[in-house]
Each structure stands twice: as C-alpha cells, then as structure tokens.
Amino acid sequence: MAEGWQIARLWGIPLRIHPTWLAILLLCTVAFERSYRPAGSGGEPMVWGLAFLTALLLFVSVLLHELGHSLVALSQGVKVRSITLFFLGGVASVDRECATPTGAALVAAAGPAVSLALGFLFLALRAPAGQLAPGLGQMVLQLGWLNLTLALFNLLPGLPLDGGLLLKALVWQISGSQRRGIQVANGCGRFLSLMALGLGTWMLLKGNGGSGLWLLVLGWFGLGAARRQAQLLRLQTVLKEGRVAEASRRRFRVVEASGSLRQLSQQRLQAADPAVPGPAAVPGAAVPGAAEIPGLPPWILVCDRGRWQGVIDDGPLQTLPVQRWDGERIGDHAQPLDTLPSIPEQAPLWQAVLRLDDPEVSRLLVLNPAGLPTGTLERPDLGEVVFSRLGVRVPPPLLALARRHNAYPMGLGLAQVARSMLSSGEVQGAEASTT
Predict the structure, then answer these.
(1) Whether domain 245-432 has CATH 3.40.50.720
(2) I need a labelling partner for 232 at 20 to 30 A (CA). Which of 15, 226, 254, 387 fits?
C-alpha cells in the first residue's frame, strides 16, 4: 500500500492519508445520512453535516486506536514510522517488532483498549448530548456502538487483527518461539478470512449486498495478509538457512606487491573499460566480465609471491605525480586486508544483511575458514540469491538497475526482516559477530 499524503505529525509520528480514505469517508457519509434521515434530525444541510461529522469522528476514533498502538510501541523502544488512514481503517508502520512477547502483547492490546474506552465514553455521553439536540444524541450513540464494534472485531484471534497479534504473543510466550506464534495466528487469520468470504457470498446471494460485499472485501484483505505473513516466514527461513558462499562473487582483482603504480593505473583503466590493454594478469587474479558489471568498481587486492598482503585504492594515484608512478611499488602503499569489511563464507545470510545495512559498507570481503579471501558480497548479489531461493526470478533489467545503485532488487526490505529476527530471538545476537 502506498504511503499517501502526510498531513501532520503526532508525537513525532507522521500521519498520512491514503487516497482510498477519501472514498471511504464519502461512502460512510452517505451511509450515515441514510440512517439519520428517518429520525428527522433536521433539514437537508443539517442531516448531511451530521453524517459527515459522524464519519469524520469515526476516523478520529480509528486514529486514536492506532495512536494507542504507537505510543505503547514507542514506550517499548520500537520506532513508529507512520500512521496511515486508508479504506479499511488505519495502520501503524513500525521499524521492527517488540523483542519480547509481553511487549508485543501490550502493543497489540493498546488499540482495542482505546476503542473500548471511547465506546463506553460515547455511550455515557448519549443522554447529555441528546438533551442538547436529538441528532447529536443519535450521533454519539452511533459512535459509541461503532467503537465497541471496532474493538471487538479487532480482538478476533487471527492475523492481521489485534487479536491475532495477542494470540501470537501468547503462543510465543508459551513455546518460546515467535515463529510458532506467527504460524498459529496466521492459520487462524486464514480460517477467519475464508469464513468471511463464505458468509459474504451467502449474504450477497440472499440480497444483502452491502454487508456481503464488505465481508468479501475483509476476507480478501485477510487472505492477502495471511499470504504476506507466510512469505515473511519463508523469507526468514531463507535468511537463516542460506549461507554467504551462495551469494559470493569474485569481484576483486589481484596485483603483485612488486608491481608499479603505473600497473595499478592500468588495472583501474582495464576495470573501467575492457578494451584498454592492461599488464599481464596474475594467474587466477582477473575477474572475467567484472568490468561489464555495473555498479561499484572491483577491489584491487595485493599479493606478494602468493601470500595476501593487503588492499590498495586510488589514493596513491591521486596524491603522487604521474612522473613517480613507475618508481613506486604497489606493496609500499597497500593497506592491511583487515581494513576491509568482511564476513565468513559460512555465515548465514541474515548476518550479511545486517553488515550491509551500515550505509558506510557497500561491499563485503568473503573469507574462507582459513581467513583468506574467496570473493565479495554486494546487496544485489544477496538479493538475487534470496529471490532465487524463494522461487522468484528477477528480471534482468531490474537486476541491472539494482547493481547500478548497489541496492536489493525490487526494493526488497531485508534489513528490517533481519533486525526483527535478531530482536525477537529467532536468531542469536552472539552469532552476529563478524570481522
């Protein structure tokens, strides 16, 4: 779902409105106008004004429901990215899930608690409001029952509803596995969605078009959410079971320490343009096709008679005059190999995702068990392997675009998934140590 338009910030949280919200606001206004008209709540402008105010206050109630979730999430140390109002109500987007089942349960329960409180408050205000104006009393009564309905509906035990989140937290607490909690709550959510689809179809056949259509929409939305949760579980499995070696590519070149800076310059030119002739390559050092790969230029590693010595960048070429390039040895300007960000080839993919989440890290050096370089790892390579394990083929133009920007293909949000796995205990933090 698109983010929509930002209209305000509440406690530092961006409040957004999705375009579909405008349509549902109009539909709710029409529905409330029809319910007020038989009661004779006033003239035409008065009825429409009262209907619009009811619809608006209903969505204010939904906003307060989402704020309840968000403020408790903030108290649990979870960053809330935004709150978006859309055609099915509202949704709070968070940076990650709570690290404990207790925290997750508190966040899930906060929204229905707010709706219950609002429902009882509106019902308590019905009599005073009715004394001021009959239409006002009717509006307060409707808002009271709507908030109670919102609370009870959200407490149904199936994802993505709040009741499903509470069920997930409960199973997580009992079993010690957040993954198990998601599986149970997602299964319940799929069952409820199928029930909604069946009941909605039956109501349509019976002539109750409005309610039947609404149930069909809810069922369709619920099945979509269940499918996304199942995909998230598969993605977590891939990140946990996949290894860095699968995504490693040999995007580095090797030069001898005894070579001159002139040879280093020729290596750089050859990497940028394969048509430029370069020096005799160190056996096994050249990367076939590396220059044709868009994105970052390959690293140049320094080898001294078969032993790894370090890495060299363009710094010496930029600081020393061209006249000195023939007399300067590459090895004299090399930096230690451990200055490069690196990761073991047998490390799980989620560790690589967390390492590449650092904006200062654009590529990782992949090391074998002996600590020797075997390849490199970039975000496009990692993303391509993840998609492949999920059975999805990335179109070549999208993969090329990802390489140009050194990003995950199709905007795959791996970092958020990996952080959630770590914070929830799905993987152990001690395993995240890399060189």
Answers:
(1) no
(2) 15
